[in-house]
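Internal ticket - ligand job 419, pyridoxal-5'-phosphate:
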Amino acid sequence: MPWPSTTSRDTETFGYIDEERGRQITGLQLIASENFTSPDVMAATGSVLTNKYAEGYPSKRYYGGNAVVDKIEALAIERVKKLFGADHANVQPHSGASANMAVYLGLLNPGDTVLGLSLDHGGHLTHGSPVNASGILYNFKSFRVGDTDERLDFGQIREMALEHRPKMIVAGTTSYPRRLEPEPFKAIADEVGALMMFDIAHIAGLVAGGAHPNPVPFADVVTFTTHKTLRGPRGGCILSSAAHAAAIDKAVFPGSQGGPLEHAVAAKAVAFHEAMQPSFKVYAQQIITNASALAEALAHQGFRLVSGGTDTHMMVVDLRPFDSELTGKEAQLVLDQAGITLNKNNIPNDPRSPFVTSGVRIGVPSVTTQGMTQTEMPLIAEYIATTLRGRNDPAIVAEVRAKVAALCAKFPVYPTVKK
Ligand SMILES: *Cc1c(COP(=O)(O)O)cnc(C)c1O
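stdout (structure tokens):
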């Protein structure tokens, strides 16, 4: 029986996919957690592997027919272990959130105390937010960034660790522009006998490309997403020391997932291969160069950079010195109309709610993938500032929209992918 799509294609859905491709390639994609993945990664994601059930692990599967899938998953595991210098890898987590929940399930008991960075100071939902399973099932205590320098305060983290005696410390950030140094975290974890987990979801590509310190030698467990700076398919991954390998694998399957998405696992293998190429180091370095250039240009336009700047792929921008009336919510909306996509974001100690905010978060992984350099960053800052200054004048917004489209046309993302 042929599929209905051979005679009546779902033009509605595919029409929307074409529309979304148009949106992605004609605008500036500045969401710090996004990237443009390669045509090869997309080919693996859209492959026949989506048909296969493979519950279990290579050579320990519940179903037959997994000889080829075993080779693919083993390849992904070998590559990622080599890329990060890890003893053990689990490449099956469906997402970063699933990876984190599997680690907690494998290494903690419900109710155990854990230390993590507060969501409104740059942490992630899965680091103990009360609306997330992490915060519901475990006793998370949140540390915050320092009031004056807006950076991690290891004095405070150590004091909290001594007071609460956590079973685990979670280091990792989702909107924090500075380096995550592994040594001071590790020293505190050792002092109180806590497990050390690093969530490098955002910075995995920078770590792989040698542009950010690698926490793997210091951590019991490292989790990350494969779709942010690492530029692979949507998905998660867990690296661990040999001592935790069995507990981690059991917590992913059967603990918290069923059949793995082997098409995503194959795409992860492709992304790891790409990240092992010398050109990926150049990419990671260019991300850092672009982010500092953009931060500097934004400061020049009158914005305040949280913590004074960035050493990563992202920055958090305080809009108040630019315009005290302007909220992150309004900025996101009007910039979207100008073809500039980013997200509103709380700044540390933000007087406005998370739905309104006084800031935006900006990242450069996508524009760096499409070939933009420090030459284009001042232009991007200018387009952002012009749009926000002229936000009540549709003609100004439309003018910027046209300039953005012209700039993006000079840096085509997917020249070889057919519609
Ligand atoms: C993005 C992110 C995650 C979650 O990843 P998903 O794939 O969206 O579930 C987890 N931790 C951190 C620090 C992140 O930035």
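Auto-summary: The chain has two domains: 25-37+280-409, 42-275. The chain is about 40% helix and 15% strand.
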